[in-house]
Amino acid sequence: MRRLIFILVLIAATAGSAWAGDEVPTALSNKEAIDLVQTHANYLWTLIAAALVFFMQAGFAMVETGFTRAKNAINILMKNLMDFSVGSIVYWAVGFGIMFGTTTTGWFGTDGFFLSDFTPGGDPWVLAFWMFQVVFAATAATIVSGAMAERTKFVSYLIYSAIVSTVIYPVFGSWAWGSLYHGNGWLEGLGFIDFAGSTVVHSVGGWAALAGAIVLGPRIGKYGPDGKPRAIMGHNMPLAALGVFILWLGWFGFNPGSTTTADKSIAMIFVNTNLAAAAGACTALITSWIKFGKPEVGMTLNGALAGLVAITAGCANVSPASAIIIGAIAGVLVVISVLFIDKIKIDDPVGAVSVHGVNGAWGTLAAGIFNIGGTTATIIGVQLIGIAACFVYTFGIAFIMFKIITATIGLRVSPEEETEGLDVIEHGGSAYPDFETSTYAQS
Amino acid sequence: MRRLIFILVLIAATAGSAWAGDEVPTALSNKEAIDLVQTHANYLWTLIAAALVFFMQAGFAMVETGFTRAKNAINILMKNLMDFSVGSIVYWAVGFGIMFGTTTTGWFGTDGFFLSDFTPGGDPWVLAFWMFQVVFAATAATIVSGAMAERTKFVSYLIYSAIVSTVIYPVFGSWAWGSLYHGNGWLEGLGFIDFAGSTVVHSVGGWAALAGAIVLGPRIGKYGPDGKPRAIMGHNMPLAALGVFILWLGWFGFNPGSTTTADKSIAMIFVNTNLAAAAGACTALITSWIKFGKPEVGMTLNGALAGLVAITAGCANVSPASAIIIGAIAGVLVVISVLFIDKIKIDDPVGAVSVHGVNGAWGTLAAGIFNIGGTTATIIGVQLIGIAACFVYTFGIAFIMFKIITATIGLRVSPEEETEGLDVIEHGGSAYPDFETSTYAQS
Amino acid sequence: MRRLIFILVLIAATAGSAWAGDEVPTALSNKEAIDLVQTHANYLWTLIAAALVFFMQAGFAMVETGFTRAKNAINILMKNLMDFSVGSIVYWAVGFGIMFGTTTTGWFGTDGFFLSDFTPGGDPWVLAFWMFQVVFAATAATIVSGAMAERTKFVSYLIYSAIVSTVIYPVFGSWAWGSLYHGNGWLEGLGFIDFAGSTVVHSVGGWAALAGAIVLGPRIGKYGPDGKPRAIMGHNMPLAALGVFILWLGWFGFNPGSTTTADKSIAMIFVNTNLAAAAGACTALITSWIKFGKPEVGMTLNGALAGLVAITAGCANVSPASAIIIGAIAGVLVVISVLFIDKIKIDDPVGAVSVHGVNGAWGTLAAGIFNIGGTTATIIGVQLIGIAACFVYTFGIAFIMFKIITATIGLRVSPEEETEGLDVIEHGGSAYPDFETSTYAQS
Amino acid sequence: MKKIEAVIKPFKLDDVKDALNKIGVKGMTISEVKGFGRQKGHKETYRGAEYQVDFVPKIKIDLVVDAAMSDQVVAAIKESASSGKIGDGKIFVMSVDEAVRIRTGETGRDAI
Amino acid sequence: MKKIEAVIKPFKLDDVKDALNKIGVKGMTISEVKGFGRQKGHKETYRGAEYQVDFVPKIKIDLVVDAAMSDQVVAAIKESASSGKIGDGKIFVMSVDEAVRIRTGETGRDAI
Amino acid sequence: MKKIEAVIKPFKLDDVKDALNKIGVKGMTISEVKGFGRQKGHKETYRGAEYQVDFVPKIKIDLVVDAAMSDQVVAAIKESASSGKIGDGKIFVMSVDEAVRIRTGETGRDAI
Ligand SMILES: Nc1ncnc2c1ncn2[C@@H]1O[C@H](COP(=O)(O)OP(=O)(O)O)[C@@H](O)[C@H]1O
Ligand SMILES: Nc1ncnc2c1ncn2[C@@H]1O[C@H](COP(=O)(O)OP(=O)(O)O)[C@@H](O)[C@H]1O
Ligand SMILES: Nc1ncnc2c1ncn2[C@@H]1O[C@H](COP(=O)(O)OP(=O)(O)O)[C@@H](O)[C@H]1O
Question: Does F49 touch chain D (CB under 8 A)?
Fold first, then answer.
């Protein structure tokens, strides 16, 4: 490896200059060197955080698999793997440029495609930054798969998840975060606060999921002849719980990592993230206990996630005490929202809309309300504008996209396939061939 | 995000001063800046380590779920999720203050509740430190759930695990670690060595678990009419093994992270941690092979954990060779201990007492014996005092607590519920609805 | 802990000198302090990366368990746990010295056994470096278990995996990487490029796996009377998928960590690693879709891994665009290779040979072809020499080793044991006692 | 008394159960079985190798009724279990000599 | 020969097995079944939606014995399987024309 | 018609199936069962405590055939299922009063 280090040092020019040195150090050369070490720390933190956020893909995969039926396990796993894989490629090719390229209009970027901003020998920060951003894009994309689970055609999934990572997410992202790189969006221009993406990532994912679930319609058997929602139980609670722990871990990259700087500010973000998640789990547990007479596992797991989503916008500008309040409210909200969405006959197997859409909105509002520096009508107003813009834009465009897919290649599998299970029909395999699975209980 | 960075920089005052600078750097301003960068590295390491330790919650959840029966899976998962969630809140409100607040008596702290030591604009170190400590507190609490699995009332669990994180753990913690912040405990005053908590975290958890298992009594069917212990097999070995790998990973935050400093010392701690775990797995494998004629998976997994627990106290002050010896002995010890505890009719489904209690004590003693700077009768003596104090205090108070709970709301579920399974009765769900589970084998 | 910090500071001498300081700082003392902080960052990164690579053990365990049958789950888990545990001990005692000790011949090192290069008070870098290297050694060793799964005697496994970590891997490693420490190998002398070990780690593992699979012969029932390969389905796809996500995460330590330096160069390595994996998954999906008419999960998972293995050699000296090409080719290659190996009657249950051996070779060649600084016949030539040397050496010595084991203690379990399952016979347990498993489907 | 064994398609179970309740059947025992017959299984691919699943999942209903009710029950099952597609399954009728209710010790018709 | 089919509560299996061994029954075959009868299932909640589990897990014992032994066996099962609570299950007796031990080819009484 | 119930060793299923196909049996129903008999189970160790697995996994084949075919079928199963080792299993033959094919309503011999 060392041999290559040399090549690398040449590439990382600045580094070279700072370390070449046997020449006598001066206050100036030292200052330069100090800044460089801090820069190295920033790279380190940004990339480690990116790795943690990447791992959230595993979390989503486990949660969504655990909350759906065994006969569709391969399908949901494939979707989670492929939305990240396809997403990485398209975000490299197009998405990143749209989100962070220079923009004349303030509506989206128009350069920096194919990571063209990076030239060997040049400053590699764009690579570190891209790495951190691509895992965010994939998060938005993967949220959708949960709400549309157990009935969506695989090929259609690939197409729309590519569209989400190429256009839908990046365009909105450019409005709120473009200036983090070469862009400058109208929403951030207003002073919109969404530190790590309650709206930019989670609501975008959640509202797209909502559109998808509506266009698809509910799974066979989800609603009885009486129109009452029926339980279609997830097949593997340990996997679902593992997924939530993994997501919680990943959020320690998602929120504090959004500083892309290794400084003291990450401490409060860690604490806020953890407290909000804890509070969300507690209040969701209590709410389910009161409403159903028993502490329900699915809701409690959703509660922790709801707390995490809700603190994402304000994790850097609210106090720990506020974080607890924000998370606690999210925990109640998610239970009510899941029941409500079930009731209005929208079938969201994993609760993606309630967790990411609804609580993304709540969290964004809360970031304004609980702003540590105090709040104003303007701040709240801007937050509301951002929330509304996200819903109108995302739901609208996603709805149209899903309608077009339905009209062309088709979005949903046939009833036979749905009953048989997507694993056999779509992938020609079964996830648990050695186990006896009960065929009637949930067919 | 960048927009917020500014707010943050203001918050992180010191940082502000160091980076504001276009003024000409001086040796002094540089020194200050260097210290700041090092401080940033310390924050980074402390918080990343905290994230790794947090992930141990997932490890415990998988180990405990894997080592118990399918009909109680939801219950054990919920317990693991909630002890961390509830624990985070109560440790924020009370526990941290008791453990690290200023103390006049040396018995426990009396300020710093609700993270009141942190003021916006002030030094956020208390937040980083709290984050690292809360995951330790939750570790102590979650250990208990394993020993009391498959028969403890959920509501009673919530209550006692809250008490552990609020009082039981923090009080002992203040004795040994208080001076890491504002406190100063009598035990550390004596020079007690417990770098990362073989005693403070693991023995506290283990002895509380012992008290709980004794008060609860064994699971139905654990002992035959002949009084011989019968096997109640864990239902999912892959999950249990995954849990052990996750815990091993987490320990790379648990032990080296306890420096809360990014310096060279963490290297030896990493190596010691890894070698002790490896040695523990090896000797436990061999011991089980000799004793049962076959290399047994449960014992081997426990062996790795035993090695990790045992090296925790001395990870920073023993040599790698000593670490191997410490781990190797732990691996033998855990097998003997599990068999012994089984024999005296204490039912510990996952071996929590043997892994955390017994080997926590062994590790603490070993930290004195193998001290890299040489050992003395005094060192050993102090270690023994610490070990004894931990047992007497923790077992005593926990025993009383469990007795009170038994006498009031009740600690154990009804025999019917136990036979039916806690998932259906306590949570109204089942962990694997799509799978055919054998109902007689282990009912 | 703080109390110990002092002891530690004494140990970490240099650190001591730099921080002791209330004396007036000078440009020189500052320069020294700056270098020290950078050194701390390097330690931090190297050790965090080591932790991530360690976690790959969990990934391998899940992939191999998921891709094999339920009746052998405990066995494969034990093998994964023990190759790391035994491997850690023998690599500490012998392997590291052979790989990185001073060498007079250029064929292997002859000192630094038992970490003897570390002396309390001395520079602990050797410990950080060892920690990073031991997880690499274990990776090479664990690769073998997959190809030989479901029919290898446990005791024989322990022996040969110990030999791999003691001799086979270290000797080749010393040829290519020895100079990273005290050694200097003939291969690196030629200018062989293998930044993170496509050849050194993965091909070594893959070719040893090939030898093992050949000597063992296929599992009962793998080939029909007609000689056609028959599917023996893996029993748990969610575990397999989880394993792939974990491995992907671990690779963010494996590749960028190989800098063992916290500088800007890691950014491009992160990006390349991610893009190659994504591309591999995409092309494997497409290839399986074309070849089998359906997107097959096993192949797609292998595709992601193939991309990761292939980029390992060149991750630091190829452009992101090249990384995509390298990964894309790997994804196609792995499918073809798996089918080919199946066809020539070598039974590799998890595709270890195709993923690690074949794509390790491809990646090493690609590192020459796509070299960012341009390529030459010499570069390609040296890469080919390295690839060939690895195959001849590793396959040869491993083949002999397996033959000797077969002739002595025996390598394969009896047909009865194989039919019954290794868990019951070798370990006297079952991985899923609460589940009804189908006994005929895949007996 | 007669024992009626019906092998049906899993997703038909609910309909059959309801149909039997309607005609007053108070008890039955079901089990997961695999069927082999005119309805062929399907092919699966695993890592490139094809795999023929011969046996199709079915539900078997065991039902003991008073001889007098037998035809009516058979008719009800035939009705409710039929999808008209191959693989709908079979109904077999056998004689039962004795029936006992464990709880009460009642025998014969009272037992069922 | 007679075939005795008993549907019992899972946790009673051990007792029944022991009782049968006592009276010299050398073999039996058991299977996991689900029962529907007077004993009703239970309600489960999943993410807020209620779910009625109609079928209760039971164990079915298949046992072929010499006709002469039949009553004794039935009595033994009735004894050992009874908890007095609803859902204890049923015992059915049928005639068997022939029995063969695969290993030896023995038939009739020698086969069981 | 006759109902043939065979309890065999799982890994023999393929052979039995082929043997039955050869003599023209078009359908059968199988289920996973656990057997208790002369073939004893095995001991497992879990965390040091021994555990006796009494019941051995077996496959049960349910097969209804025309009475005339019965002996031939029994012979075929006996042949193909035999490994000569203890635990090979049993074959039982019972009379069936009626058979119905749900799809067509055909009864008797035409139904099977
Ligand atoms: N002779 C038989 N004995 C027992 N079960 C049978 C027999 N023939 C068919 N079955 C069962 O009935 C199911 C359906 O039969 P099949 O021939 O596939 O369709 P159909 O009943 O519509 O002709 C089979 O899967 C099998 O479980
Ligand atoms: N007519 C029947 N035919 C077959 N099995 C039956 C019949 N009635 C009951 N069973 C079985 O017996 C079990 C117990 O019957 P149930 O009516 O619930 O209680 P009890 O036997 O105490 O009256 C049921 O779960 C079912 O498996
Ligand atoms: N009397 C019986 N009634 C029902 N099934 C029986 C009976 N005896 C044996 N079996 C079944 O046959 C299987 C094999 O019988 P076993 O006595 O173990 O060997 P063998 O048939 O070679 O004598 C048992 O596991 C059990 O499933």
Answer: no
Name the residue type at position C64. E
User: What local confidence, expressed as pLDDT, does residue A1 receive?
Assistant: 45
The reply to whether ligand 1 has any atom less than 6 angstroms from the CB of F104 is no
In this complex, which chains have at least 3 CB pairs below 8 Å with chain C? Answer: A, B, D, F
Please report which helix (H) or strand (E) contains residue B174, including its range: helix B169-177
Mean local confidence (pLDDT), C289-293: 95
Residues of F in contact with D38 (CB under 8 A): 26-27
Rounded to whole angstroms, how far apart are CA atoms D64 and C402?
Answer: 61
Q: Taking a C-beta distance cutoff of 8 angstroms, is the pair C244, C55 a contact?
A: no
pLDDT-based confidence at A13, cuts 50/70/90?
very low
Residue B22: its pLDDT value, please?
A: 57
Q: Which residue has the higher pLDDT, A396 or C12?
A: A396
Compute the C-alpha angle D71/D76/D77, nearest 5°. Answer: 100
Q: Tell me, what's the ipTM?
A: 0.95
Per residue in E14-40, pLDDT (tens digit) is 899 999 999 999 899 999 999 999 887
What span, in angstroms and rounded, lies between the C-alpha atoms of C198 and C136? 11
Which helix or strand (DSSP H or E) is residue D73 part of?
helix D70-81
Inter-chain CB proximity B61 and A241 less than 8 Å: yes
Q: Which of 116-145 (A) contact B at CB < 8 A?
A: none
Contact B9, B16 (CB under 8 A): yes
Q: Cα(B15)–Cα(A262) distance, rounded to whole angstroms?
A: 11
Q: Is the pLDDT of residue C395 over 70?
A: yes
pLDDT at A10: 35
CA–CA min distance F69, chain D (Å): 17
Provide DSSP, B143-157. HHHHHTTTTB-HHHH
* pLDDT exceeds 50 at position C407: yes
- Which two structure tokens, joined as six digits, stand for A227? 């129109």
Strand partners, C179: none
Residues of chain E found within 8 Å of residue A293, distances taken between Cβ atoms = 45
Q: What are the angstrom distances between the C-alpha of D17 and each of A196, A222, A223, A232, B216?
A: 53, 20, 19, 20, 43
User: What pLDDT does A22 receive?
Assistant: 57
Sequence-ordered list of residues with C-beta below 8 angstroms from that of C352, at least 6 positions apart, any chain: C143, C144, C146, C147, C205, C206, C209
Express as a percent the part of chain E with pLDDT over 70.
Answer: 100
Question: How many other β-carbons are positioned within 10 Å of the β-carbon of residue C206?
Answer: 33
Instruction: Provide the pLDDT for residue C22.
Output: 57
CA dist., res. F47 & res. F36, Å (int): 26
Higher pLDDT, F34 or B7: F34
pTM of the model: 0.96
Mutate to test the pocket of ligand 1, among D7, D33, D59 (most ligand atoms within 8 A of CB): D7
